[in-house]
Amino acid sequence: MQIYWTKINKIIEETPEVKTYLLDCPEDYTWEEGSHIHLALEGFNAGDKPNRSLIRHMSISTLPHENSIGITTRIREQCSEFKSILRNMEIGHEVAIFKTHSNVPLKREDKNVYLLSSGVGLATFRPLVLDYFDRADNVNHIHSLNIDSSKDFLFTNIFESVPDKKFTSQFVDNRKEYYNEVKNLATDKAGLFYVVGSDEFLVENIEVLREQGIKPEQIMLDKHEHVLPEFLSIQSSI
Q1: In a domain, 237, yes or no
Q2: Rounded distance, CA 192 to CA 190, Å?
Q3: From the CB of residue 205, how many other CB atoms can be counted at a distance below 10 Å?
Q4: What's the CA gap between 75 and 21, in Å, rounded?
Q5: Ranges for the FAD-binding FR-type domain (predicted)?
Q6: Is the domain of 41 the same as that of 149?
Q7: For residue range 39-79, what is the model confidence (pLDDT) as tens digits?
Q8: Do the domain assignments include residue 26?
Q9: Cβ count within 10 A of residue 41
Q10: What is the pTM of this model?
């Protein structure tokens, strides 16, 4: 396993609780849309075993042509050791990155794509939307639906409806409105549904989608292949 040490080159305050850390790209380092990465802080590998409290699995919120690896995360007042250290880091500080992989690349199957996310989960979908804007081949339409109770919605300059590009975006701040809209979207029985958020959020969405007749193979999760059956075998209990 190759570990890259790289520097923070910019910190963007997206909302009062959400920051994007832009990291220098190591030479010859690349990734695809929907990728995640392991982000580690100084000291994580100082002992006999890795200190897992200093390592987090993070989505990459940028594309390679943006020339920075973007990590977008929510840091609340009460937070973990990892987030507390990250909050106090500055431009020029070093972090380690390794194990890059994409579970949710944009499928180009001449279908409508629905991006369902909660809060900062939208960061996973930012590169998919940018990739679609750059090349819309074999994608009929993309619709993004995000729920964020804070009402501090992310990336509103990108996630805004562009009818000419067959892209629509919707933000809601409550569960009732969100799940009513998921049911409406699921009337498209041939659509592809990407879901990003907490495990609880994934389970709730899968239950609603399955209840509406959406098949497991139409549901894309940002999870490793070996754990997908645990989620996608869920039957509706609603």
Answers
A1: no
A2: 7
A3: 26
A4: 12
A5: 1-107
A6: no
A7: 999 999 998 888 999 999 999 999 999 999 999 999 999 99
A8: yes
A9: 19
A10: 0.92
